[in-house]
Amino acid sequence: MDMFNHETMRQVVKKIGLGAAFVLVIASPEILHVAIASPAAKSAPAAQAASANTFVPTCSASQVVVDTRPDPAWVGASFAHDNCWAPAMPAQLNGATATREQIVASMAAEKRYDLQSAAYQKCISDYVVARTAEAGKVKKPMDVALVTIEDHRIAASANNEKKVAALTGNAIEAFNEFGSQCDD
């Protein structure tokens, strides 16, 4: 009887701990937001912030501003043994200093990347379809987390295709302007 009470108490403490961890995970973005917006972080003088010129001006109105931050490594890695690996994005090219051959090679690299990205997305899609069929055969529900993560990987890949196209377009435009420094 004493062992039953001890085991029951252990299960209750475990559930409370899991509940507290869940609440902490849910609240963590708010806690981070409060920490970032604390008065200590806001105390930098406005003049100092205004004088910090960390951004390079964009001269051409037709150039597309591209978010070139890389995805987390897990997005491109094989997930749940699906054996689908995201292709590496082509190197960014400075069109103002590039040669014609480099621009043509960049255009070819974009086409190769698009083909590899489509194959990667199909690999993931085929894997999800196969896993869904397996789950249906054994009459078990499909793992929602797996589908969500795989969908995110496909969306990230499609977004990377757009990034590569925009970066290539920017390089071509800068090449055509030939480093004009935007003098009007």
Which key terms come to mind for this protein?
mainly alpha, elongated, 0% strand, single chain
Structural summary, described in words:
There is one protein chain. With about 180 residues, the chain is mostly helical. The chain has two domains: about 1-45; about 75-175. The protein is about 65% helix and about 0% strand. It is built from six helices and no strands. The protein has helices at about 1-35, 40, 45-50, 75, 100-135, 145-175. Helix 5 (about 100-135) runs antiparallel to helix 6 (about 145-175). The protein is elongated. The termini are far apart.
Summarize this entry quickly.
This protein is mostly helical and 184 residues long. Helix content is 66%, strand content 0%. Residues 32-36, 38-51 and 53-58 have low confidence and may be disordered.
